[in-house]
Every structure is written in C-alpha cells, then in structure tokens.
Amino acid sequence: MLKHNILFICTGNSSRSILAEAIMNHLGPNRFAAYSAGSQPAGRVNIQALMCLERNQINTAGLRSKSWSEFAAPDAPTMDFVITVCDKAAGEVCPVWPGQPLTAHWGVEDPGHIGSTDEEKSKAFWDAFMKLHRRISILLSLPVDKLDRLSLKKELDQIGLA
After folding, report:
1. Which residues, at least 6 apart from 118, have a Cβ–Cβ distance to it below 8 Å?
2. Nearest by Cα to 53 from 152, 2, 122
3. Pairing assessment for the beta strands 32-38 and 102-105 based on DSSP bridges
4. Residue 59: which residues within 8 A CB-CB, separation 6 or more?
5. Which stretches of the chain are DSSP H helices?
C-alpha cells in the first residue's frame, strides 16, 4: 500500500492543523505521513491543543507551529493532499496551496478563540478534536488507492461537511 503525504493548513498553525496532524499520524501511520503548517504561523502551539492530545493519549513530541513555506522548499516532501481547516464562516482567510495535490476544505471553528473559562476552552478543544477525529477516520475508511482523482476529490469535499 502506498503511503500518502497530507498537509493540514490554517492561518496560525497553533491549534486545528496541529490537532489534525497529530490525529492522522496516530490513526493512520501506515497509510499517511501528516504535516501541518500555517500561512501566518503563531510561532507556538496552543497549550490547550497539546493538553487535548495528551488526554487522548496521542503523541505530541515534535509538534511545532511552522510556516507553510517549509513545505514549498525544493527538499520538502511532495504533498498528495492539502486540507485547509480554517473557518471561513468566521471570516478567516484560508491559504491556497499551489501545485497538483488533491485539496479540500474542512472548516473547523478556532477553539483558541472560544470561551473565557478553562472549562469552556477545554470543551472547545474537545469539540474541534472530535470533529477532526471523525473526518480523519472517514478519510482512513476510504479505499484511497482505488479511487480515481475525481471521485477522491468528491469524497474529500463531502468529508468536510461531516
């Protein structure tokens, strides 16, 4: 089975894309190599994102906020999939990825901007985690290597609505 590279991107690369990278590497390590990046990286990973991953026994080693320019460099891995996870409904500008990877938008509300109490923040990260976990699980259930490009694109778009 072919291993695919997948890049999750959003604006700050501090919460949602970090969660997605860690979840995919946890659930699908034999099928996908997941990465994350931001168009305007925050420079740090949100501590709530790390705590949410650790509560779910997902490895957080090596997670860092980084620019998507790292993945445009000549020596960077070639991406097969690029998924944006920013929330267009909140007026965020989602980055556009050049090249030939299959792309999709899986909008998730930024949990870093929800709630004022620790309990509200924790719930917001849990909700984002569960939404991404569900979508990644659906992707992992697809026969990716058996679908043609158009069918796979349609499936990716549908997952973003789940």
Report:
1. none
2. 122
3. unpaired
4. 22, 25, 26, 53
5. 16-27, 47-55, 118-141, 149-159
Domains of the chain as residue ranges with CATH: 4-151 (3.40.50.2300)
Mean pLDDT of all residues in 65-69 = 92
Q: Which of 151, 136, 153, 29 is nearest to 101 (CA)?
A: 153
d(Cα 146, Cα 62) in Å, to the nearest integer?
32
What pLDDT does residue 37 have? 94
Quote the tokens at residue 13.
């690369």
Residue 86 is predicted with a pLDDT of 87
For 44-55, how does the pLDDT look when each residue is reduced to its tens digit (9 = 90+)? 999 999 999 999
Active site residues: 10, 86, 94
% of the chain residues with pLDDT over 90: 74
Q: Quote the CA–CA distance of 78 and 128 in Å, as a whole number.
A: 27
Determine the Cα–Cα distance for residues 107 and 11; give it in Å rounded to an integer: 12
Q: pTM for this one?
A: 0.93
In whole angstroms, what is the distance from residue 50 CA to residue 43 CA? Answer: 14
Joined tokens for residue 46: 């949100």
